[in-house]
Design brief:
Layout lengths: L1 E4 L5 E4 L5 E4 L20 E3 L5 H4 L2 H8 L2 E5 H9 L5 E4 L4 E4 L2 E7 L6 E2 L5 E2 L5 E6 L5 E4 L9 H8 L3 E5 L8 H11 L3 E5 L11 H7 L4 E2 L8 E2 L1
Parallel strand pairs: 3-4, 4-5, 5-6, 12-13, 13-14, 14-15
Antiparallel strand pairs: 1-2, 1-16, 2-3, 7-8, 8-11, 9-10, 11-12
Helix pairs in contact: 5-6
This protein binds nickel (II) ion and manganese (II) ion (MN).
The site of nickel (II) ion has 6 residues, from loops.
Length: about 230
């Protein structure tokens, strides 16, 4: 599959069969969004939680491409109120087939208010993560924004992820100190760090995590540069 980091917590994944998944779409105004990168299709959007830096362009992309839109129940309810079609609401521990992959929603330790058009904050349910099982048997864990939590050991036990996406920036999520413990609890061989460097306050860096998590391969991506996995 082809993975392209679009900066911050936003990723584009093109599966071997050609389906495009977009995680936590923030394109307009994302300081790390790769200039000139064009989203040329979208079969599914997965939203981890309702903060603007994860949901900002979900409505626009959904209207443009008519993908399935996966989120926790209350966030999907808000998206539907914005006339987003094809929402696939779910909650933690549940799984559903989205195209060729099976998506399971997991816990996250974070908040989930959605800033509405008038500036008020709407209840968006809870922040979540996703386990994605590909049809070739490989498994990805996309944590969304979160601190480390001891139940990551359950994610390791139940889903055995081969690749994890973890925030490391600090301030709004865990920093490399906590992410190193997450690597250990998840027993995951490879981690793609995210949610760092976007703003001055997001100070965590992949090399700091690599020093603390020597048994894990920390795979730093460059925004806009496609990698194969
Ligand atoms: Ni957040
Ligand atoms: Mn965030």
């Amino acid at each position: 599959m082809e993975i392209t980091w679009l900066g911050h917590g936003t990723f584009q994944m093109v599966l071997p069969g050609g389906e495009t998944l977009i995680f936590d779409p923030w394109t307009q105004g994302n300081p790390l969004y790769p200039a000139g990168h064009e989203i040329k299709g979208c079969d599914a959007i997965l939203v981890s939680h309702g903060h603007f830096d994860h949901i900002h362009d979900a409505v626009g992309l959904a209207k443009q491409w008519k993908p399935k839109v996966v989120g926790i129940y209350e966030t999907c309810h808000w998206l539907e109120s914005k006339a987003v079609a094809n929402c696939c609401p779910m909650n933690k521990g549940g799984s559903q087939k989205i195209g060729s992959v099976t998506v399971t929603m997991t816990h996250a330790v974070h908040s989930c208010g959605i800033t509405d058009d008038d500036g008020s904050i709407v209840y968006g349910g809870e922040a979540a993560g996703y386990v994605i099982k590909l049809d070739d048997g490989r498994t990805i864990y996309f944590s969304g924004d979160t601190n480390v939590f001891s139940d990551m050991a359950l994610i390791a036990e139940i889903y055995k992820p081969d690749l994890a996406f973890l925030p490391i920036g600090d301030l709004y999520t865990m920093s490399p100190r906590e992410a190193a413990v997450a690597c250990r609890l998840l027993k995951v061989p490879t981690v793609i760090p995210m949610h760092f460097g976007t703003f001055p306050g997001l100070t965590g860096r992949p090399e700091q995590l690599q020093k603390l998590a020597s048994d894990t391969k920390i795979w730093e991506l460059t925004p806009g540069k496609l990698v194969n996995w």
